[in-house]
Amino acid sequence: MAIDIKNLNHNQLNDLIGRAQQRQEELAKDKLSKLRDKVVALITAEGFTVDDVFGTGRKAARRVSKVKPKYRNPADPSQTWTGRGKRPRWFNAALSAGKKEKDLLIA
């Protein structure tokens, strides 16, 4: 079925292009659906499940272990710092006041 595009005006040509692209998407979805069905059938025929072959699709949660505090604020012992990340204000203030890092270490 040949379409004579030379006789189409701008709007008709845009409409034809839009319908052709929509049809391409439909064909791709159909093809993907058929392929998915074939893969699932093959997996099932071999005695497995999709989750056995491909997993659940979720990544394992990363375990974050708690780190013991390394430094303590002498003015307020409830304030501690592990030594990781940005320095707390109290730590910088203590250093500015003349204390050394080893003075703030937890014994």
TrEMBL record:
It is found in: Cytoplasm, Nucleoid. One of its GO terms (molecular function) is minor groove of adenine-thymine-rich DNA binding. Coiled coil: none annotated. Its main location: cytoplasm. InterPro entries: H-NS_C_dom (IPR027444), H-NS_C_dom_sf (IPR037150). Pfam families: Histone_HNS. Keywords: Cytoplasm, DNA-binding. GO terms for cellular component: cytosol; nucleoid; protein-DNA complex. SUPFAM superfamilies: H-NS histone-like proteins. It comes from the Bacteria. Residues 59-106 form the DNA-binding protein H-NS-like C-terminal domain. Residues 65-86 are annotated as: Disordered. Belongs to the histone-like protein H-NS family. This is DNA-binding protein H-NS. It comes from Dokdonella koreensis DS-123. The lineage of its organism: Bacteria, Pseudomonadati, Pseudomonadota, Gammaproteobacteria, Lysobacterales.
